[in-house]
Design goal:
This protein is α+β, with helices and mostly antiparallel strands. The chain has helices at 47-55, 80-86, 98-101, 108-120, 124-137, 143-147, 151-158, 165-172, 213-217, and strands at residues 3-14, 21-32, 63-70, 73-74, 223-226, 229-231. The chain binds adenosine-5'-triphosphate, iron/sulfur cluster and magnesium ion.
Length: 241
Amino acid sequence: MSTLLDVQGLTVTLPTNSGPMTVVDDVDYAVEQGQVFGVAGESGSGKTISVLALMRLLPAGSSTSGTARYGGQDLLKLRPRALREVRGAELAMVFQDPLTSLHPMLSIGKQLTEHVRSHEGASRSAASKRAVELLEEVRIPDPEHALRGFPHQFSGGILTSPRHPYTRALLDALPHPEAAGGTELVAIPGSPPTPRARPAGCAFHPRCPYASEQSRVEVPPLVAVSETRLLACHVDPFRPK
Ligand SMILES: Nc1ncnc2c1ncn2[C@@H]1O[C@H](COP(=O)(O)OP(=O)(O)OP(=O)(O)O)[C@@H](O)[C@H]1O
Ligand code: SF4
Ligand SMILES: [Mg+2]
Protein backbone atom coordinates (compact mmCIF):
# COMPACT_ATOMS: atom_id res chain seq x y z
CA MET A 1 0.00 0.00 0.00
CA SER A 2 1.14 3.53 -0.60
CA THR A 3 0.24 6.63 1.32
CA LEU A 4 -2.49 8.67 -0.34
CA LEU A 5 -2.80 11.48 2.16
CA ASP A 6 -0.19 12.40 4.74
CA VAL A 7 -1.21 15.02 7.28
CA GLN A 8 1.45 16.36 9.65
CA GLY A 9 1.10 18.96 12.39
CA LEU A 10 -2.26 20.22 11.15
CA THR A 11 -3.25 23.19 13.29
CA VAL A 12 -6.26 25.42 12.62
CA THR A 13 -7.02 28.74 14.27
CA LEU A 14 -10.44 30.30 13.69
CA PRO A 15 -11.39 33.93 14.11
CA THR A 16 -14.01 34.47 16.80
CA ASN A 17 -15.59 37.53 18.41
CA SER A 18 -13.18 37.18 21.29
CA GLY A 19 -10.07 36.67 19.18
CA PRO A 20 -8.36 33.76 17.44
CA MET A 21 -9.10 30.28 18.80
CA THR A 22 -7.08 27.13 18.01
CA VAL A 23 -9.58 24.32 17.49
CA VAL A 24 -7.35 21.73 15.76
CA ASP A 25 -3.96 21.33 17.39
CA ASP A 26 -1.07 19.40 15.88
CA VAL A 27 -2.90 16.53 14.20
CA ASP A 28 -0.89 13.84 12.36
CA TYR A 29 -2.25 10.94 10.33
CA ALA A 30 -1.66 9.05 7.10
CA VAL A 31 -4.30 7.42 4.94
CA GLU A 32 -3.16 4.52 2.75
CA GLN A 33 -4.58 3.83 -0.70
CA GLY A 34 -7.80 1.79 -0.44
CA GLN A 35 -8.06 2.42 3.30
CA VAL A 36 -11.19 3.71 5.00
CA PHE A 37 -10.10 6.10 7.72
CA GLY A 38 -12.36 7.26 10.52
CA VAL A 39 -12.04 10.02 13.09
CA ALA A 40 -14.10 9.78 16.26
CA GLY A 41 -14.67 12.44 18.90
CA GLU A 42 -17.32 14.35 20.77
CA SER A 43 -19.25 17.23 19.28
CA GLY A 44 -16.99 20.26 18.97
CA SER A 45 -13.74 18.31 19.07
CA GLY A 46 -12.67 19.59 15.65
CA LYS A 47 -13.46 16.74 13.23
CA THR A 48 -15.28 18.87 10.66
CA ILE A 49 -12.88 21.82 10.90
CA SER A 50 -9.87 19.53 10.37
CA VAL A 51 -11.41 18.22 7.14
CA LEU A 52 -12.63 21.64 5.98
CA ALA A 53 -9.00 22.76 6.34
CA LEU A 54 -7.87 20.07 3.86
CA MET A 55 -10.66 21.06 1.47
CA ARG A 56 -9.65 24.72 1.97
CA LEU A 57 -13.19 25.62 2.92
CA LEU A 58 -12.51 27.33 6.25
CA PRO A 59 -14.25 30.59 7.18
CA ALA A 60 -12.45 33.77 6.05
CA GLY A 61 -9.80 34.90 8.50
CA SER A 62 -8.84 31.39 9.58
CA SER A 63 -5.20 30.33 9.64
CA THR A 64 -3.78 26.87 9.07
CA SER A 65 -0.33 25.41 9.60
CA GLY A 66 1.22 22.01 9.02
CA THR A 67 1.25 19.98 5.81
CA ALA A 68 -1.20 17.73 3.98
CA ARG A 69 0.67 15.86 1.24
CA TYR A 70 -1.60 14.49 -1.47
CA GLY A 71 -0.39 13.33 -4.89
CA GLY A 72 2.97 15.07 -4.55
CA GLN A 73 1.51 18.42 -3.52
CA ASP A 74 0.60 20.09 -0.25
CA LEU A 75 -3.17 20.65 -0.15
CA LEU A 76 -2.68 23.49 2.31
CA LYS A 77 -0.55 25.43 -0.17
CA LEU A 78 -2.32 24.76 -3.50
CA ARG A 79 -3.00 27.82 -5.61
CA PRO A 80 -6.66 28.42 -6.52
CA ARG A 81 -6.44 26.81 -9.96
CA ALA A 82 -4.72 23.64 -8.79
CA LEU A 83 -7.14 23.54 -5.88
CA ARG A 84 -10.14 23.62 -8.21
CA GLU A 85 -8.65 20.76 -10.23
CA VAL A 86 -8.25 18.54 -7.18
CA ARG A 87 -11.45 19.49 -5.41
CA GLY A 88 -14.50 17.86 -6.91
CA ALA A 89 -12.47 15.60 -9.22
CA GLU A 90 -10.47 13.85 -6.48
CA LEU A 91 -11.52 15.18 -3.11
CA ALA A 92 -15.13 15.40 -2.12
CA MET A 93 -16.97 16.15 1.03
CA VAL A 94 -20.36 14.79 2.02
CA PHE A 95 -21.89 17.51 4.15
CA GLN A 96 -23.89 15.29 6.37
CA ASP A 97 -23.78 14.28 9.94
CA PRO A 98 -23.99 10.47 9.92
CA LEU A 99 -25.28 10.46 13.48
CA THR A 100 -28.37 12.37 12.47
CA SER A 101 -28.79 10.74 9.06
CA LEU A 102 -28.96 7.25 10.59
CA HIS A 103 -31.53 6.56 13.26
CA PRO A 104 -29.91 4.60 16.12
CA MET A 105 -33.03 2.54 16.83
CA LEU A 106 -33.76 1.29 13.28
CA SER A 107 -31.86 -1.47 11.52
CA ILE A 108 -29.54 -0.56 8.62
CA GLY A 109 -31.77 -2.62 6.32
CA LYS A 110 -34.88 -0.67 7.24
CA GLN A 111 -33.09 2.65 6.73
CA LEU A 112 -31.56 1.70 3.40
CA THR A 113 -34.70 0.21 1.91
CA GLU A 114 -37.33 2.65 3.16
CA HIS A 115 -36.26 5.33 0.69
CA VAL A 116 -36.33 3.14 -2.46
CA ARG A 117 -39.56 1.53 -1.34
CA SER A 118 -41.44 4.77 -0.73
CA HIS A 119 -39.95 6.84 -3.57
CA GLU A 120 -39.57 4.26 -6.30
CA GLY A 121 -42.31 1.89 -5.25
CA ALA A 122 -39.83 -0.99 -5.18
CA SER A 123 -40.90 -4.30 -3.70
CA ARG A 124 -39.42 -5.39 -0.39
CA SER A 125 -37.14 -7.97 -2.05
CA ALA A 126 -36.02 -5.62 -4.85
CA ALA A 127 -35.25 -2.94 -2.26
CA SER A 128 -33.22 -5.40 -0.15
CA LYS A 129 -31.29 -6.51 -3.21
CA ARG A 130 -30.40 -2.90 -4.01
CA ALA A 131 -29.39 -2.29 -0.39
CA VAL A 132 -27.04 -5.31 -0.50
CA GLU A 133 -25.51 -3.93 -3.71
CA LEU A 134 -24.95 -0.55 -2.06
CA LEU A 135 -23.24 -2.13 0.94
CA GLU A 136 -21.09 -4.25 -1.38
CA GLU A 137 -20.09 -1.12 -3.26
CA VAL A 138 -18.69 0.43 -0.09
CA ARG A 139 -17.08 -2.93 0.79
CA ILE A 140 -19.04 -3.69 3.95
CA PRO A 141 -18.29 -7.33 4.75
CA ASP A 142 -21.24 -9.78 4.76
CA PRO A 143 -23.86 -7.26 3.55
CA GLU A 144 -26.89 -9.52 4.12
CA HIS A 145 -25.94 -9.83 7.76
CA ALA A 146 -25.10 -6.11 8.01
CA LEU A 147 -28.63 -5.20 6.89
CA ARG A 148 -30.04 -6.76 10.04
CA GLY A 149 -27.63 -4.76 12.22
CA PHE A 150 -27.92 -1.33 13.83
CA PRO A 151 -25.78 1.75 13.13
CA HIS A 152 -23.63 1.43 16.29
CA GLN A 153 -22.55 -2.09 15.28
CA PHE A 154 -20.69 -0.60 12.34
CA SER A 155 -18.48 1.62 14.46
CA GLY A 156 -18.04 -1.26 16.90
CA GLY A 157 -16.64 -3.33 14.08
CA ILE A 158 -14.24 -0.60 13.03
CA LEU A 159 -12.73 0.06 16.43
CA THR A 160 -12.13 -3.34 17.94
CA SER A 161 -10.84 -3.48 21.53
CA PRO A 162 -10.11 0.23 21.91
CA ARG A 163 -7.18 0.90 24.21
CA HIS A 164 -7.43 4.62 24.95
CA PRO A 165 -9.75 5.60 27.84
CA TYR A 166 -11.39 8.30 25.68
CA THR A 167 -12.05 5.91 22.78
CA ARG A 168 -13.48 3.38 25.24
CA ALA A 169 -15.73 6.05 26.73
CA LEU A 170 -16.98 7.09 23.27
CA LEU A 171 -17.85 3.52 22.35
CA ASP A 172 -19.45 2.82 25.73
CA ALA A 173 -21.74 5.80 25.04
CA LEU A 174 -23.24 4.23 21.91
CA PRO A 175 -26.85 3.14 22.46
CA HIS A 176 -27.63 -0.59 22.25
CA PRO A 177 -31.28 -0.63 21.17
CA GLU A 178 -31.31 -4.40 20.64
CA ALA A 179 -30.32 -5.14 24.26
CA ALA A 180 -33.15 -6.72 26.24
CA GLY A 181 -34.65 -5.00 29.25
CA GLY A 182 -33.88 -1.37 28.38
CA THR A 183 -30.29 -0.86 29.49
CA GLU A 184 -29.47 2.62 30.76
CA LEU A 185 -27.60 4.98 28.43
CA VAL A 186 -23.98 5.63 29.36
CA ALA A 187 -22.47 9.10 28.93
CA ILE A 188 -19.04 10.65 29.41
CA PRO A 189 -19.41 12.86 32.51
CA GLY A 190 -19.22 16.64 32.05
CA SER A 191 -18.73 18.34 28.70
CA PRO A 192 -15.80 18.67 26.32
CA PRO A 193 -13.51 21.55 27.32
CA THR A 194 -13.72 24.71 25.25
CA PRO A 195 -10.66 25.09 23.00
CA ARG A 196 -9.98 28.36 24.84
CA ALA A 197 -9.54 26.77 28.25
CA ARG A 198 -8.07 23.38 27.55
CA PRO A 199 -7.00 21.53 30.70
CA ALA A 200 -3.25 21.15 31.30
CA GLY A 201 -1.67 17.73 30.83
CA CYS A 202 -3.98 15.24 29.14
CA ALA A 203 -6.99 17.26 27.91
CA PHE A 204 -9.27 14.38 29.00
CA HIS A 205 -8.01 14.27 32.61
CA PRO A 206 -10.87 16.09 34.39
CA ARG A 207 -13.33 13.51 32.98
CA CYS A 208 -11.17 10.40 32.88
CA PRO A 209 -11.73 7.74 35.55
CA TYR A 210 -8.12 6.55 35.15
CA ALA A 211 -6.37 9.95 35.41
CA SER A 212 -3.12 9.94 37.38
CA GLU A 213 -1.09 12.79 38.88
CA GLN A 214 1.01 12.75 35.72
CA SER A 215 -2.15 13.04 33.56
CA ARG A 216 -2.88 16.36 35.25
CA VAL A 217 0.47 17.97 34.38
CA GLU A 218 2.04 16.30 31.38
CA VAL A 219 0.68 15.88 27.86
CA PRO A 220 0.92 12.15 27.12
CA PRO A 221 3.20 11.46 24.13
CA LEU A 222 1.91 9.40 21.21
CA VAL A 223 3.76 6.08 21.24
CA ALA A 224 3.50 2.95 19.09
CA VAL A 225 2.10 0.13 21.22
CA SER A 226 1.90 -2.36 18.36
CA GLU A 227 2.57 -2.43 14.65
CA THR A 228 -0.82 -0.93 13.88
CA ARG A 229 -1.57 1.14 16.93
CA LEU A 230 -0.49 4.40 18.51
CA LEU A 231 -1.53 5.44 22.00
CA ALA A 232 -1.23 8.68 23.98
CA CYS A 233 -1.99 7.76 27.59
CA HIS A 234 0.24 7.77 30.71
CA VAL A 235 -1.75 5.07 32.46
CA ASP A 236 -2.72 2.70 29.63
CA PRO A 237 -5.32 0.90 31.80
CA PHE A 238 -6.37 -1.49 29.01
CA ARG A 239 -2.91 -2.81 28.22
CA PRO A 240 -3.25 -6.52 27.39
CA LYS A 241 -1.97 -8.59 30.31
N1 LIG B 1 -17.26 29.18 11.88
C1 LIG B 1 -16.77 29.00 13.10
N2 LIG B 1 -16.30 30.04 13.82
C2 LIG B 1 -15.80 29.88 15.07
N3 LIG B 1 -15.71 28.69 15.69
C3 LIG B 1 -16.15 27.61 15.03
C4 LIG B 1 -16.71 27.70 13.71
N4 LIG B 1 -17.06 26.44 13.32
C5 LIG B 1 -16.75 25.62 14.34
N5 LIG B 1 -16.20 26.32 15.38
C6 LIG B 1 -15.67 25.77 16.63
O1 LIG B 1 -14.61 24.88 16.29
C7 LIG B 1 -14.60 23.77 17.18
C8 LIG B 1 -14.59 22.48 16.36
O2 LIG B 1 -15.83 22.36 15.70
P1 LIG B 1 -16.16 21.19 14.68
O3 LIG B 1 -17.39 21.60 13.96
O4 LIG B 1 -14.95 20.89 13.86
O5 LIG B 1 -16.45 19.96 15.65
P2 LIG B 1 -16.89 18.47 15.27
O6 LIG B 1 -15.90 17.59 15.94
O7 LIG B 1 -17.06 18.35 13.80
O8 LIG B 1 -18.30 18.36 16.02
P3 LIG B 1 -19.66 17.55 15.60
O9 LIG B 1 -19.47 16.14 16.11
O10 LIG B 1 -20.72 18.27 16.37
O11 LIG B 1 -19.82 17.64 14.11
C9 LIG B 1 -15.78 23.93 18.10
O12 LIG B 1 -15.30 24.50 19.32
C10 LIG B 1 -16.68 24.90 17.36
O13 LIG B 1 -17.43 25.66 18.27
S1 SF4 C 1 -3.39 10.15 30.21
FE1 SF4 C 1 -4.53 9.95 32.12
S2 SF4 C 1 -6.31 11.30 31.86
FE2 SF4 C 1 -5.44 10.93 29.82
S3 SF4 C 1 -6.59 9.21 29.03
FE3 SF4 C 1 -4.76 8.36 30.02
S4 SF4 C 1 -5.42 7.91 32.11
FE4 SF4 C 1 -6.95 9.25 31.25
MG1 LIG D 1 -18.70 17.88 12.60
